[in-house]
């Protein structure tokens, strides 16, 4: 059965004959739709021509691997998940702030925000003034929908260094102010970010505020740039920005 083409699972006669076939068909369709939404076209191709085994592989290798809480809100820099045990050993032996901070970043990327918060707080107990740890703890609190707690951390970081981490900290502060309904202050920050960087994440959220203020022409301009830039972006960037490109296309339809 599992070697059969997926379209066979969707045949009416097969579904009526077996409840198990119905479950498999729904699962395959669920994974196919998710792959289309993520623009994972290679997976889409093999799911269409292959077997349901492809859908199972997609579920474990792509669907479950993507941290929903932090998708689209990655920290700058690549993270190595395999370093977790190494860092835990270094913390056990040396207990330095830097190792707690690095472990927090890995947990953040994996979407394990409570574990990340604990690591960042341990790092701050050892080095209270470290700007990177304060910034990442602020982002971690924001992703846990605690913007009021994130605000003083991110405000202080941006005041100290407006260009911190290539504008990522300023973006997080803008998102914090948006969550706190301070759209005018957020708008000013988004303008600063987009003046210096072409981040899809910034342009889409700037467009959303323009729409709130009924400035549709300005919103349309930001959305168009995101969609146009995606056509010529390298694969790694398209994968990173796909959440924002989908959001931009949705906004485009509204405008």
Structure keywords:
mainly alpha; single chain; 255 residues
Question: Can you put this structure into words, describing what you see?
Answer:
The protein contains 15 helices and no strands. With 255 residues, it is mostly helical. It is flat, with a radius of gyration of 22 Å.
Quick overview of this protein structure:
With 255 residues, this protein is mostly helical. It is 75% helix and 0% strand.
Class by alpha and beta content: mainly alpha
> How helical, in percent, are the residues?
over 70%
Output mean pLDDT: 86
The strand count comes to 0
Q: Helices and strands in order, then pairings?
A:
Layout: H1 6-9, H2 12-17, H3 19-37, H4 41-49, H5 52-63, H6 84-94, H7 97-109, H8 113-126, H9 131-143, H10 147-160, H11 168-179, H12 183-196, H13 200-212, H14 216-232, H15 235-254
């Amino acid at each position: 059965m599992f070697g059969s083409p997926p379209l066979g699972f969707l045949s009416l006669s097969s579904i009526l004959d077996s409840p198990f076939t119905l479950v498999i068909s729904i699962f395959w369709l669920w994974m196919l739709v998710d792959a289309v939404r993520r623009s994972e076209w290679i997976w889409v191709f093999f799911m269409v021509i292959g077997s349901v085994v492809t859908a199972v592989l997609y579920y474990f290798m792509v669907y479950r691997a993507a941290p929903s809480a932090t998708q689209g809100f990655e920290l700058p820099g690549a993270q190595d998940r395999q370093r977790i045990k190494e860092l835990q050993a270094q913390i056990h032996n040396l207990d330095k702030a830097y190792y707690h901070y690095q472990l927090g970043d890995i947990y953040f990327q994996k979407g394990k925000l409570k574990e990340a918060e604990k690591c960042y707080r341990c790092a701050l107990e050892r080095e209270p003034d470290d700007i990177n740890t304060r910034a990442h703890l602020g982002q971690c609190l924001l992703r846990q929908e605690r913007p009021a707690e994130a605000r003083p951390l991110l405000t202080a970081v941006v005041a100290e260094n407006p260009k911190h981490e290539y504008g990522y900290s300023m973006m997080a502060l803008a998102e914090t102010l948006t969550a706190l309904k301070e759209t005018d202050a957020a708008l000013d920050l988004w303008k600063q970010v987009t003046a210096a960087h072409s981040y899809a994440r910034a342009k889409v959220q700037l467009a959303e505020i323009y729409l709130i203020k009924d400035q549709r022409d300005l919103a349309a301009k930001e959305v168009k740039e995101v969609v146009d830039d995606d056509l010529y972006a390298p694969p790694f960037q398209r994968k990173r920005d796909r959440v924002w490109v989908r959001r931009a296309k949705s906004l485009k339809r509204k405008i």
